[in-house]
């Protein structure tokens, strides 16, 4: 749900811990659901978005603004793409990897559109992921959990 909207700066914030440290921006190129525009973005709007995450910025390519009676999807997924590095494997199975400097946990629930053996350092991949909060000796930290991994052509 939208927490704040700044139409001049073309930024929004969303409710929940998942997005609290993420700058979310849209542009004149951002597409909106049929019949909607940036002017329809208001506090408490229910939305779903598609975009590209770079660092701590989510640049929106598409925003769907739901009418009050519409049902919202149940999972939030973000997308990133780039070159793979720092692959960690246990018994030939990838358990984590970095894409463009961001680390992703790869679990048994991660859907793979490519065999682990084909994910090598330097490979171009696209990953859909969710963010969750975990703890470490340094305190709470955000964990990127891969939901889907595929090679980018």
Please give a handful of descriptors for the protein shown.
12 strands; mainly beta; 2 domains; OB fold (Dihydrolipoamide Acetyltransferase, E2P); 153 residues; 6-stranded mixed beta sheet
Describe what you observe in this structure.
The chain folds into 2 domains: about 1-65, OB fold (Dihydrolipoamide Acetyltransferase, E2P); about 80-150, Copper binding periplasmic protein CusF (OB fold (Dihydrolipoamide Acetyltransferase, E2P), Beta Barrel), CATH 2.40.50. Helix content is about 0%, strand content about 55%. The protein has no helices and 12 strands. The protein has strands spanning about 1-5, 10-15, 25, 30, 45-55, 55-65, 80-90, 95-100, 100-105, 110, 125-135, 140-150. The strands form 2 sheets. Strands 1, 2, 3, 4, 5 and 6 form a 6-stranded mixed sheet that branches. A hairpin with a 4-residue loop joins strand 1 (about 1-5) and strand 2 (about 10-15). The model has no long low-confidence stretch (mean pLDDT about 80).
Structural shape: elongated
Catalogue the unreliable spans.
none
CATH topology of the largest domain, what is it called?
OB fold (Dihydrolipoamide Acetyltransferase, E2P)
The rounded Rg comes to 17 Å
> Biggest β-sheet, characterized?
6 strands, mixed
SSE pattern, N- to C-terminal: EEEEEEEEEEEE
Structural class: mainly beta
Number of helices: 0
